[in-house]
Amino acid sequence: MIAANTGATELHERYLRLLRNKACPGALCLLCVLILACGGSEPGVVRGVVVEAIDRNLAEIETLRIRDGSGRVWVFTTVGALEKNGAHLRLHQVIGEAIEVSYEERNGQLIATALRD
User: pTM for the full model?
Assistant: First the structure.
């Protein structure tokens, strides 16, 4: 996380130097595009009740749907195993106990990175 922020800061500094040196407009546009492309969305956290948990296998979750306090349904997928498996999440679904999902957005998908009771 720090490295990504540092890289963005370095790009920002280069952009400012180009502005000071009155670089050509094409180079400035290219640099702006690079800055926007390097920046990813910040990790997020949402808390809610489990609506659905679909297993990829015994250890991994293919799809997780939770409903937050405002009624919004969030749909997550995973990359690899997390702390909780589908069976544990379905127990939360049955008893109505909320969970907390840490996530990142990648290519328009919400990727769950951590789960907490």
Answer: 0.64
